[in-house]
Design goal:
- The protein has a 6-stranded antiparallel β-sheet with strand order 1-4-5-11-7-8, with no helix packed on it. Strands 2-3-6-10-9 form a 5-stranded antiparallel β-sheet, with no helix packed on it.
- The radius of gyration is 38 Å and the shape is elongated.
- The relative contact order is 0.14.
- The protein has 193 residues and is of the alpha+beta class.
- 15% of the residues lie in helices and 34% in strands.
- The chain contains 2 helices and 11 strands, in the order ααβββββββββββ.
- A hairpin with a 2-residue loop joins strand 9 and strand 10.
Length: 193
C-alpha cells in the first residue's frame, strides 16, 4: 500500500513534546517611528497649506500693509510731527498709512527740506477733504516754513495756516506725500533725489 502525503504523520508530531517558540531575531524597531514621523510631517504640511490658502491666506494677512481705519469716532492718525485727520462723513472702508520716507521726487532747487517726508497711502474710498497738520517745535515756530504736497511726482506749494505751534492745511483729495520746506540759502547744498 502506498501512503499518500495526507496519511503520514507530521515529521514532529510528538504530542508529549513541549511547545518551543521560535526565537525571533530582534530588529531595530524603528518601523513604527518612521511611520509616525512621516504621518506627522504630512499632517504639518497639510495644516500649513491650509493656512496659506484662502479663506485664511495667512501670508497675505501677515505681509499686507496695516491700514489705520478711520471712522467718525477715530478720525485722526499721527506719525512723527504730522497729523492726518478727516472731518465730516468718512467712508466705512477708508484706511490710511503714514510713513517717513526719503524724498520720492526731486525737491526744487529753490527749496530745502525741513524735517521728514511723509508718504500717505490709502485704501478704500477717500474722503473729499482732509486736514494735514505739522507740529512745529518752539525753536521753529517763526521759521519761514511752508507746507508742500506731492502729486504725480511734482511738489506743490499748499497754502497753510500757522497757529498754536502748528502749520495746518485742508486739501481736496489725498496727496502722495507731504513735507515742510523752506527757502534754500545760497550756501546750502542741493539735494538731488
Amino acid at each position: 500500500m502506498t501512503q499518500s502525503w495526507n496519511d503520514s504523520p507530521p515529521p514532529h508530531a510528538d504530542d508529549t513534546a513541549e511547545f518551543q517558540p521560535i526565537a525571533r531575531k530582534q530588529r531595530g524597531g524603528c518601523g513604527c517611528w518612521i511611520t509616525a514621523f512621516t504621518t506627522l510631517i504630512v499632517f504639518a504640511a497639510l495644516v500649513l497649506i491650509g493656512l496659506l490658502l484662502p479663506p485664511i491666506s495667512l501670508l497675505d494677512r501677515l505681509s499686507a500693509p496695516r491700514y489705520a481705519v478711520l471712522n467718525s469716532d477715530a478720525n485722526t492718525i499721527r506719525a512723527g510731527s504730522l497729523t492726518f485727520s478727516v472731518a465730516g462723513a468718512i467712508p466705512d472702508d477708508f484706511g490710511v498709512i503714514l510713513e517717513t520716507i526719503a524724498a520720492p521726487a526731486p525737491i526744487p532747487a529753490s527749496l530745502a527740506l525741513d524735517g521728514s517726508v511723509y508718504a500717505i497711502t490709502t485704501e478704500g474710498t477717500a474722503p473729499q477733504t482732509i486736514t494735514l497738520a505739522f507740529d512745529l517745535p518752539p525753536e521753529r515756530a517763526n521759521a519761514p516754513l511752508d507746507l508742500y504736497t506731492l502729486n504725480n511726482g511734482i511738489w506743490t506749494f499748499t497754502p497753510s495756516l500757522r497757529a498754536d505751534g502748528t502749520l495746518s492745511t485742508q486739501v481736496n483729495g489725498v496727496p502722495q506725500a507731504v513735507a515742510l520746506m523752506q527757502p534754500a540759502s545760497a550756501d546750502q547744498p542741493m539735494v538731488l533725489a
